[in-house]
Design brief:
Elements (H helix, E strand, L loop, with lengths): L1 E6 L2 H10 L7 E6 L9 E2 L7 H10 L4 E4 L3 H4 L2 H7 L13 H4 L1 H11 L6 E4 L2 H9 L5 E5 L8 E4 L2 H12 L11 E5 L5 E9 L3 E9 L2 E3 L3 E4 L4 E4 L6 H22 L5 E11 L2 E8 L6 H5 L7 H9 L15 E9 L11 E2 L10 E5 L2 E4 L2 E4 L3 E9 L2 H14 L5 E2 L6 H4 L3
Parallel strand pairs: 1-2, 1-4, 2-3
Antiparallel strand pairs: 5-8, 6-7, 6-8, 9-10, 9-14, 10-13, 11-12, 13-16, 14-15, 16-21, 16-22, 17-20, 18-21, 19-20
Helix pairs in contact: 6-9, 7-8
This protein binds adenosine monophosphate and glycine.
Length: 425
């Protein structure tokens, strides 16, 4: 099978690494890829938002399956454009991608499918939003409806903070059209987990759970990032019971509601869940794999992913399929450029060689470039270091051995990834 992975981050590096092990693979292309994926397949200089360019390449190269990594091409209709050209894609249509591109769309699906989620209201009018906020208890959550580069959610600890966030979005337009309509939500509490399913429009297969660390600072402090590290599986009282409950109460009803309205969902479905004292509640959907969750989960999956993704793209997943999981745990720690998620420099040299001898360590490139014969930083999140081990402690320790061995003085990592999973050891 000739496969095109779309994206250039560590998530796509992990997908390429996993697919490269498949006996069913005959050629692997990554657009645009990165210096890490260059060792696994052919990097193609086409940007993720160049939909005509990606379709033309897939057609000219007789690609059998396209696997998009990030949401941007999905939101722009990559799957639809490929489908019109007769090319199979494991990703949702633009209409189904609304599960990520519109938070109000998701809430409406939740209402139809009776999915547990925080109470909410929607506003385009600032006075009405303010009146509602005054009538609710703090804390509460203010959200821009559309995609806002991960900055569209404000967890407001006080009524004043909530009023201010609503004003910034509705009156000052800080997120432009994405914030022209807002949601005001009740605040949920509990540990947060990332939950994944492989979907073919009708059938969903459980594809793992992970715990991300979104804040830049240790102890979950500081601004939000794309994710500073993850562990899998999360430490849970009864993971099997939870995964069955989430598949039954959240994932499958969503798939049924999406099919019912004529926008069946194919691709990776990522549910952000809050494990509240009264059970799991949906915070949000993403229509793609998580990053860094993908780097953490794929090394634990024993199955060949390629036939599954091909079946998913064709609406032919066998509902009896259950993935096989490697025993033990995995941890991913992100090495970021100092300053991230604020302004940061590029072009600093990185030497990976000292980490190359550490067993069970995977180095995925997130924001790097090859220049003047050296590997250099070229992004906020620069590298994702994943280790597996017989338990959380072993995986976490090995990931930090990798982080410490890499020579990148201008980089930093959170030092407490997975620490909560070790409580009680
Ligand atoms: P983002 O990934 O930028 O959409 O950030 C959303 C984050 O805001 C989630 O990961 C949660 O930590 C938090 N959040 C969103 N909705 C709620 C809610 N209803 N209650 C509590 N926290 C929430
Ligand atoms: N790590 C969270 C995300 O991919 O959105």
């Amino acid at each position: 099978m000739r496969v095109l992975v779309v994206g250039g981050g560590a998530r796509e590096g992990a997908l390429a690494w996993k697919l490269a092990q498949s006996p069913a693979l005959s050629a692997l292309f990554i657009a645009p890829g990165n210096p890490g994926t260059a060792a696994l397949g052919s990097n193609i200089a086409i940007a993720v938002d160049d939909i005509p360019g990606l379709v033309a390449f897939a057609r000219d190269q007789a690609i059998d399956l396209v696997i998009p990594g990030p949401e941007a091409p999905l939101a722009l209709g990559l799957t639809d454009a490929l489908s019109a050209a007769g090319i199979t894609c494991f990703g949702p249509s633009q209409a189904a991608a609304q599960l990520e591109t519109s938070k109000i769309f998701t809430k409406e699906i939740c209402a139809v499918a009776q999915i547990p989620t925080a109470a909410w209201a929607r506003f385009t009018d600032l006075d009405q939003a303010h009146a509602y906020i005054h009538a609710r208890p703090a804390p509460m959550v203010i959200k821009a409806d559309g995609l806002a580069a991960g900055k569209g959610v404000v967890v407001a600890e006080s009524i004043d903070a909530a009023l201010e966030a609503a004003t910034a979005m509705l009156a000052h337009g800080i997120h432009g059209a994405a914030g022209a309509e807002i949601l005001v939500e009740d605040c949920l509490t509990g540990p947060e987990i990332s939950f994944f399913a492989l979907c073919d429009g009708e059938t969903a297969i459980f594809a793992g759970m992970a715990q991300d660390h979104k804040r830049v600072g240790e102890g979950d402090t500081g601004p939000n990032t794309g994710g500073m590290g993850a562990i899998a599986p999360p430490r849970l009282h009864d993971p099997d019971l939870l995964s069955e409950a989430v598949m039954a109460r959240i994932i499958r009803p969503t798939l049924a509601a999406m099919a019912e309205r004529g926008t069946p969902f194919r691709g990776f479905l990522f549910a952000g869940l809050m494990l509240t004292p009264t059970g799991p509640q949906l915070i949000e959907f993403n229509v793609r794999f998580g990053d860094p969750e993908c780097e953490t989960l794929l090394p634990l999956i024993e199955d060949d992913l390629l036939p599954l993704l091909a079946a998913g793209a064709q609406g032919a997943l066998d509902p009896a399929t259950a993935l096989s999981w490697r025993a033990g745990a995995a941890a991913t720690v992100i090495l970021a450029a100092k300053g991230y998620p604020g302004p940061y420099a590029r072009g600093m040299n990185i030497d990976l060689a000292p980490a190359a001898t550490i067993p069970d360590l995977l180095i995925f490139h997130a924001g790097t470039m090859q220049r003047d014969g050296a590997l250099q930083a070229n992004g906020g999140r620069v590298l994702a270091i994943t280790a597996t081990g017989p338990d959380w402690r072993a995986a976490i320790e090995r990931a930090y051995r990798g982080i410490d061995a890499i020579d990148f003085p201008e980089g930093f990592a959170r030092r407490d990834i997975g620490e909560r999973a070790l409580i009680g050891d």
